[in-house]
Please model this.
Amino acid sequence: MIGAYVLLNCKKGNEKKITELLKQIKEVKEAQCIDGPYNLIIKLESESKEKLHRVITWKIRKLEDVKATFTLRYDEESDACEDF
Model:
């Protein structure tokens, strides 16, 4: 399983509307409002890197009032953190 945490910077006051739209995207598993330079954090899961990229690029970034995103991708099958 490939996943990502995506930080979203959106137009102030539209966080709730964007959260409702995000819930309609199958790959979005969680969405939370946060403080700081970004307004929302979402958790995504997909079966491939390509599908994850398409969802972020063509669904999430295209939402009205989403100004910027920052993506932190992970691969559950990676052995990069074996010592943890």
Observations:
- The mean pLDDT is 92.
- The helical segments are 15-22, 49-60.
- The first strand starts at residue 2 and ends at 10.
- The chain has one domain: 2-75.
